[in-house]
Predict the structure.
Amino acid sequence: MVLTCPVATGRTTSNQGAPGHSRRALLRAGALVALGGAAVPLTGCDLFDRDDESRPPDPLEPLAAEATALEARYRAAATAVPALAERLTPIADAHRAHAEELRKVIGRPAPSGSPAAGATAAAVDPDTVRTELRQAEQEGRENAAKACAAAPAERAALLGSIAAARATHLEALR
Amino acid sequence: MTPTSGPAQALGDALAAEYAAIWAYGVIGVHLTEAARSAARAAEAAHRSRRDALILQLSGGGGQVPADRAGYALPYPVTDRASALKLAVEIEERTAGHWRAALPHTTGADRNKALAALTDCALRATRWRRTAGVTPVTVPFPGRQA
């Protein structure tokens, strides 16, 4: 298993040999390191480890945002073309379920101010709607497959299911 | 985690699922006609090539390669088109589940192969649902136990 708390390295302890440096300067240096996300100062796991602002973004953030955006697109399309609603709604539900599972794995809520997707259904011609959804879904499928390939073991199964689901959405849109 | 036995065990389980799928399609195919029967034949061929690839991969690793069984117990009688299609959906979801379980035990090219297999199973399950008139034709998390 991978340690989740990197142990501090020499950088923050180099002040030991420089008694002239103020305590404040030391703290400031530590804060900068923490902001960079490179190492946790002084101790392996400090209290401020839980501060979301100091953690680097999770590599799955884009995929979670994409799932939310896809859900919005399908909902908008289902409203614009009621004849397709029966087919599109279960897919929208699946994207929502994916976003929820990804958020659980990420362990943080969606960043505030993240776009709720360009949920504009400009086209109302069913064939055009389907073509546009297929394009978005195809892109999503590739992104999920890439994420699966790059993921640590504990995330691989979920990402594999999401990639496979997106492939089946393409099939359902035929 | 046991890095030495984990992957071989997971891929061995996937192989056992492929054996069962190949066997099941023999039962399924006889109750289908025309396009559906061709689809069953194509599905069986796809499972055979996954099986062959797995046997090669596992024997290359120097470990035990699980052997096929002489027969399998059907979960219910398969007597007509409806029960054959139902079994086809279940076989694909089940096999998808074994490939999904192999994902955490693989990396690199092997993980991509497992993902391709999971995806193919999920796609066939979707097509079988459509043939059977089951809606929705998709599930949110292919291969995950409900």
User: Anything to note?
Assistant: Residues 1-23, 25-44 of chain A have pLDDT under 50 and may be disordered. The longest helix of chain A spans residues 126-150.
